[in-house]
Design goal:
By secondary structure, this protein is an alpha+beta fold. The chain is built from five helices and four strands. The longest helix has 21 residues. This is Malonyl-CoA:ACP transacylase (MAT) domain-containing protein.
C-alpha cells in the first residue's frame, strides 16, 4: 500500500462521512486531487473488468498521471513526481533524456510544444535545473502537491 497523506485523512471519510459543507474539506487541493486520481483509475479498472480496453487514452492536468498509470507507463510510485515542459517530445528525448532515459520518461504529450515528464524527485529536479541554466526561454513547472498526482516524494 502506498501511503500518500501520512494518515492525516481517509478518502472514504472525506467523500462519504462528512455531513455538511462546513465539515467537508473537499475543496482543499490536497484532499480533492487524490479522489480524482482514484476515481479515474477505478473507472478504467471497471471497464477492463468488463473486457473493455481503451485503444487510446486522453487526459489533461491531473488526469495525466492517471492516464499514464492506466496505460502502464508509470507505476503508482512513479506518478508522484512530474514536470511540465514547453518542448516537443522529440526535443525532450534528444536534449534532456540522453543517457538518463531509464530515470525519467515522457508520460504525456499535451500538444506539439508541451509535454509532461516523470521520474524520481532527484532526476526531475536535475532536469529542471538543466532547463533553468541551458534553456532560459523554455517554460517548466514542477507542481508540488502532496498527493498521488502532481506531487513530490
Amino acid at each position: 500500500m502506498t501511503k500518500i497523506n501520512e494518515g492525516e485523512w481517509r478518502l472514504l471519510e472525506e467523500l462519504i462521512e462528512k455531513k455538511n459543507e462546513q465539515e467537508s474539506r473537499i475543496n482543499d487541493i490536497n484532499i480533492a486531487q487524490p479522489p480524482l486520481f482514484a476515481i479515474q483509475v477505478a473507472l478504467a479498472a471497471l471497464l477492463v473488468s468488463w473486457n473493455i480496453y481503451p485503444s487510446s487514452i486522453i487526459s489533461h492536468s491531473g488526469g495525466d498521471q492517471a492516464a499514464a498509470f492506466v496505460a502502464g507507463r508509470l507505476t503508482l510510485e512513479e506518478t508522484v513526481r512530474v514536470l511540465a515542459v514547453s518542448m516537443s517530445e522529440e526535443e525532450v528525448e534528444n536534449k534532456l533524456f540522453k543517457s538518463i532515459e531509464h530515470l525519467a520518461c515522457t508520460v504525456v504529450v499535451n500538444s506539439p510544444r508541451s509535454v509532461t515528464i516523470s521520474g524520481d524527485e532527484k532526476t526531475i529536479d536535475e532536469i529542471q535545473q538543466i532547463l533553468s541554466i541551458s534553456y532560459l526561454n523554455i517554460f517548466k513547472a514542477c507542481v508540488r502537491i502532496e498527493n498521488a498526482f502532481h506531487f513530490s516524494h
